[in-house]
């Protein structure tokens, strides 16, 4: 939950900072969606955690009620040793098959995202969304910064700190437990490519000195997140232990 709280704070400050510093349209549209998605995720966490705790409590009480003095304390498991090795071999084969299938699904998801993104850009370009007639990027002749831009830069740096701090607890947890169990590798694959293209879009929108200075904190947050995602990728490889990467983050 704390991870999501840090994220929503980062996305909110990112959104306000992008608006105040007149960044590229994508730098405003994306955090707007992220703030909405973060709030939905937080509400889901609160709802499902509450519901699951309630169910677990009811289940525990029902289980205790069924226990009696006549219930056997030990259960016979005849032939356990004889069946252990074939079961392990079958489990290994099944895991390898699921891993290959999962990686194929992850790659297909990435390709689908790229196709949709390119199509969206093409449609918006044809619709004139990228025309520079009403360009609001800072003029190179205007060297001064308004109070709104200063506030935007401040929020941008705060956002970068939130983004950079959000993944550190997860990286440390993975290191301590030597496991990435429960994490969705597709999530980090999408995050890495998303931050990469986000940074490229910021730089491509304008190369004016003042605009790039305004975009600097947002680029720092994006590049820093890419580095942390790469660290998590390495941890996936080091700590996988033959376990398949999950399709859905838990």
Secondary-structure element pattern, one letter each: HHHHHHH
Into how many domains do the coordinates divide? 1
Q: Low-confidence spans: pLDDT under 50, at least 5 residues?
A: 242-250
- The DSSP helix count reads 7
Shape: globular
Average pLDDT score: 79
Report on the architecture of this protein.
- By secondary structure, this protein is mostly helical.
- The protein has one domain.
- The chain has 7 helices and no strands.
- One of its GO terms (cellular component) is membrane.
- Pfam families: PQ-loop.
- Residues 59-100 are annotated as: Disordered.
- It comes from Bionectria ochroleuca.
Explain the layout of strands and helices.
Blueprint: H1 2-20, H2 25-66, H3 80-126, H4 147-166, H5 168-177, H6 185-205, H7 209-239
Helix pairs in contact: 1-2, 1-4, 4-7, 5-7, 6-7
Any key phrases for this structure?
mainly alpha, 7 helices
Quick recap:
The chain is mainly alpha-helical and 250 residues long. It contains seven helices and no strands.
